[in-house]
Amino acid sequence: MTNLLSSVRALYDGFEWAIIFYVSGINAVYFLLMVLGFFALRSYRARQTPETRDALLNSPLLPEVSIIMPAHNEAVTISQSVRSMLNLNYPKFEVVRPLLVPSGPSIGRATRYALSWWIRRTAARQMRSTRD
């Protein structure tokens, strides 16, 4: 019985080490790919001129994107989050109003300010996009 128990324990330990090596190897490969991608994107960006970037952003083939920003218990940071999202340097994006879920019985002052600012800014952007 002791021999069987030690064999099972050895098998378990071997399997455990195999999983550890597998996860470590996969993470090392992912990290290497991430580093290679960083340098590839950096060299690609260095070769682009501002005129090339402007031509890409004004291309009719550029797809539209929808931005969804959920906001749960973010009364302190939602104003900055909304401002960052609306300052994107992308010409064709649809703004989807954030889902505001207050943490208490009332929405905080910062959340109310962010929502009113969001609505004004979104309305102005949509009016501009319909004129173009």
Q: Largest beta sheet: what is the strand line-up?
A: 1-3
Task: For the record, give the distance between the C-alpha atoms at the N and C termini, rounded to a whole number.
Answer: 82 Å
Gross geometry: elongated
Query: What value does the average pLDDT take?
Result: 77
Total DSSP helices: 4
Coarse structural class: mainly alpha
Uncertain residue segments: none
Specify Rg, calculated over alpha carbons: 25 Å
Helix content: 55-70%
Count all strands and give the number.
4
What percent of residues are in strands?
5-15%
Helix-strand sequence? HHEEHEEH
Biggest beta sheet attributes: 2 strands, parallel
Question: How many distinct domains?
Answer: 2
Topology, element by element:
Layout lengths: L1 H46 L2 H8 L7 E4 L2 E2 L5 H9 L6 E4 L3 E2 L7 H23 L1
Parallel strand pairs: 1-3, 2-4
Helix pairs in contact: 3-4
